[in-house]
Amino acid sequence: MFKKYSLRYYNFRLAAAILATMLFGLLLVNSAKPSYTMKEAIGITGCFAVMIIISFIDYNWILKYFWLIYIVNIALLGAVLVFGHNGKGATRWIKIADGITLQPSEFTKLFLILFMAKVISMFKDRFNTWKFLGILAASLIVPVGMVFAQPDLSTTLLICLIICSVLYCAGIDYKKVLTVLLIMVPIVLALFVYIQTPNQKLLKPYQVNRILAFKNPDAQENEDDRYQQENSVRAIGSGQLTGKGLNNDDPNSVKNAGLIPEAQTDFIFSVIGEELGFVGSIITVLLLSWIVGECLYAAVRARNFEGRLVCCGAASWIAFQSFINIGVTTLILPNTGLPLPFISYGLSSLMSLAICMGIILNISLQRNAVDEDAVLDFNK
Asked: Which chain regions cross the lipid bilayer (predicted)?
């Protein structure tokens, strides 16, 4: 479980980038929703501590229990469907105590990255066979389908992007990719036509409305579904170069007027744009890019194949989720419910990312063999 490590191999850059992004997020949550500040501060402290502890746990030991990780994931997702707490038209949370909920789909991203990394590395010689890919796909369809059933379309699509990224980094045969695309593209197009038919059963009405609002932005019946995004764009544009300042009392502020619901979570980038301007927006993108870059650097230096896949999966998770969140707030993408990594308010998202980053830090820590120059020995 614990090994002998040299602190000179510890990736302090990644740890610093994560801490800086978390603290940046705390300032923004305090401005967007001051009543959540203390809870977010406690969450950041706990999550960062968990990340540091996990960074000294051998990731190979964690991956050894990949089937247990898979079963726990299924159990948590099943608990949501049976005992889940309903909110905003979906059942995605398990109520732990008053004001404290757990969102298992946030951990599904991490669990599937770990599961795929171990399974693919174990059967690397058979990875590009249809039999193995079929078995792997069948094992992934179950948790992905359970997330979709909550319903949580945005997280489902994000998980699919992460899965594709891990498969790409594992070296999947391009001929097989082309074959799957030739099959999937017509199916996706047919489904898109189907969800626009009356009484369709695949998506919830609010999900269809969001997609149609993006497809036909000028249609009068779609105004309500674009309301939040259009106000977000107004807020970002009003910030200009340097913004109006955090915790400002500007009566013309879009945020202060309450025109951006859930500003502390999914639409926190609109707060960044309005209060910190273009400069703050660039800083946000640079911080997240820094973390993604460190994950990719760890992948290049990883000691084994499964470590490389975990790092690539983590990098794609943060990159895609950040792109989608910012794309939604700037009206580039349809409205979804994905938080901005490390910045948005939400303990489940923060904890799952912290655990993942702890594993990445351990992968970085083991990039070279450590013997006589070790300064930390957890076995003594």
From this structure: 41-59, 66-87, 130-148, 154-170, 177-195, 276-297, 309-333, 345-365
